[in-house]
Amino acid sequence: FCRVDPYGFERPEDFDYASYEAFFSRYLVVLTRRAIKWSKLLKGNNSIQKSLKVKRYIRKGIPNEHRALVWMIVSGAQTNMEQNPGYYHRLLEGEKNAKLLEAIKTDMNRTFPDNVKFRKTADPCLQHALYNVLVAYGHHNKAVGYCQGMNFIAGYLILITKNEEESFWLLDALIGRILP
């Protein structure tokens, strides 16, 4: 096993690789079965109909390969993104609030310091994507702007989606509608 997990977090020095391998070898069967069920449910569509079956699937866990898409769909972020083409990029190109930018820059190096993907030496460094998402959101929702801790939420969304714009729309869904 690698010293870094799939999301870019370094494992501690005392990480028990033997126990992890024993657990994961059994759990991989479960994950594979779930991934197959999710693939059949999605069938290449970008829509999911609410049902008890979908609710049950979500509660059991969304496989990594489907997580970003499912989050986008069930949160309403996918619909908002499709209804507002180019909006995210217009936010980044518009005038910027200097106080907002300074607050965001203060927290950039504090975001996941033990994650190799957020280090300045990473290629690509996710700090740039994180900065863009937070700046866009701060200008999108001026009532909220930027609050300490949003960097970790947005950073996690970037790790999952691997996409700035999707992360922005998910952040908007979370802060604006799901957990206002």
TrEMBL record:
Gene3D superfamilies cross-referenced by the UniProt entry: putative rabgap domain of human tbc1 domain family member 14 like domains, Ypt/Rab-GAP domain of gyp1p, domain 1
PROSITE patterns in alphabetical order: TBC_RABGAP
Protein known as: GRTP1 protein
Annotated ranges, domain Rab-GAP TBC: 61-180
Function: May act as a GTPase-activating protein for Rab family protein(s).
Top-level lineage group: Eukaryota
Cross-referenced InterPro entries: Rab-GAP-TBC_dom, Rab-GAP_TBC_sf, Rab_GAP_TBC_domain
GO molecular function terms attached to this record: GTPase activator activity; small GTPase binding
Keywords from the named record: GTPase activation
PANTHER family reported for this sequence: GROWTH HORMONE-REGULATED TBC PROTEIN 1, RAB GTPASE-ACTIVATING PROTEIN 1-LIKE
